[in-house]
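TASK: fixed-backbone design
INPUT:
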């Protein structure tokens, strides 16, 4: 089965990992800092904290943004329903009340007007998702966040290497999270990172990743114990990304520009190959963004999405659906969230189909995908 996404591993990745395995460090060693600083070249210099997954990155981001730090009255988080459930689940795990704002019908990104309608003094954070690798409308979201006194977070699991109005993703929101799962543009097997602009929030993110441990005697409440002493001021978790995986990530980041370019080339080819297929809507692109495409999301009209999904899979083409509206998950249903709340996200979900997109997809494989889809719909 041709997958919808997969990693691209070469000899340089393998060598980088083997070199760490032969060395002194398996977990936190020099590759962690090296990976973080290489990542900072992609975030416009905004400092990064490497963690064990994109989900951990979101959990860390919410903690560093002050979600769930005591003031229950102002712990609302507004986000998109058209995302992987982790964007909302991690906020809920911090004790936040999650509000879902509807998306733009063409990009699938958070609609700033829908966010504005939900924002208030209770809003602690607004989390945009750069759906498919296309940056959200950050200037408009920033204006809403400013009025509400909220932190602006970008879930950039899809969009590493993208730019919004010539500003790299990672430098636009207050906190930006990345995922390095194998289907994403850069992989560390499992892994993630959070880019944090504010130095105090950056320190909070780094502490949360490491149990909340405070090691600097100058910051300790009771530094008199001795050199071994470390203390916890706020609870954290072990979200440390090991040296072995950071070495893989460092090696992968060196090919990010090539990955991005090949994905863009494949997207341009899909646009051409599929432009005349009846009943198909191709992904939109704003003039002021440079996407870094993770998905190629088409929409299948006429109520035929499920049929097309099944026929493509039967033909050995592993199409995917991204995503079921997050609040349709039973866990949210049980909390009282109801269908119909975000009609544009639900309409998008009803038609969405992600076609195979990854750097090693050959032109010939892509043509087979396009021909199979055309034959079904033609
Ligand atoms: C992949 C993904 C995540 C979670 O990342 P993991 O590394 O799988 O934990 C979160 N949000 C979005 C939008 C994603 O695509």
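OUTPUT:
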């Amino acid at each position: 089965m041709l997958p919808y996404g997969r990693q691209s591993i070469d000899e340089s990745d393998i060598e980088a990992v083997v070199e760490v395995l032969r060395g002194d460090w398996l977990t936190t060693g020099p590759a962690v800092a090296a990976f973080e600083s290489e990542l900072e070249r992609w975030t416009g210099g905004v400092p990064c904290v490497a963690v064990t997954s994109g989900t951990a990155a979101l959990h860390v981001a919410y903690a560093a943004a002050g979600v769930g730090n005591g003031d229950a009255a102002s712990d609302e988080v507004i986000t998109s329903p058209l995302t992987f459930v982790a964007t909302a689940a991690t906020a809920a795990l911090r004790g936040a009340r999650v509000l879902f704002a509807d998306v733009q019908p063409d990009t699938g990104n958070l609609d700033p007007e829908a966010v504005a309608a939900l924002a208030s003094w209770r809003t602690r954070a607004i989390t945009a998702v750069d759906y498919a690798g296309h940056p959200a409308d950050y200037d408009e979201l920033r204006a809403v966040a400013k009025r509400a006194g909220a932190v602006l977070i970008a879930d950039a699991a899809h969009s590493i290497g993208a730019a919004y109005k010539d500003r790299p993703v990672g430098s636009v929101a207050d906190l930006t999270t990345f995922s390095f799962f194998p289907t994403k543009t850069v992989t560390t097997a499992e892994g993630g990172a959070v880019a944090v602009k504010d130095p105090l929030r950056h320190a909070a993110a780094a502490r949360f990743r490491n149990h909340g441990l405070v090691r600097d005697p100058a910051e300790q409440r009771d530094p008199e114990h001795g050199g071994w002493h470390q203390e916890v001021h706020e609870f954290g978790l072990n979200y440390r990304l090991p040296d072995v995986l950071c070495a893989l990530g460092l090696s992968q980041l060196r090919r990010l520009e090539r990955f991005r370019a090949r994905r863009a080339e494949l997207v341009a080819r899909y646009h051409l190959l599929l432009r005349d297929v009846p009943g198909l809507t191709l992904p939109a692109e704003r003039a002021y963004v440079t996407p870094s495409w993770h998905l190629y999301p088409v929409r299948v009209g006429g109520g035929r999405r499920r049929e097309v999904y099944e026929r493509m899979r039967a033909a050995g083409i592993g199409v995917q659906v991204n995503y079921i509206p997050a609040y349709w998950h039973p866990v949210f249903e049980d909390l009282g969230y109801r269908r119909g709340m975000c009609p544009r996200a639900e309409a998008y979900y009803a038609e969405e189909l992600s076609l195979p997109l990854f750097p090693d997809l050959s032109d010939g494989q892509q043509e087979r995908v396009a021909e199979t889809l055309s034959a079904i719909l033609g």
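COMMENT: The mean pLDDT is 97.
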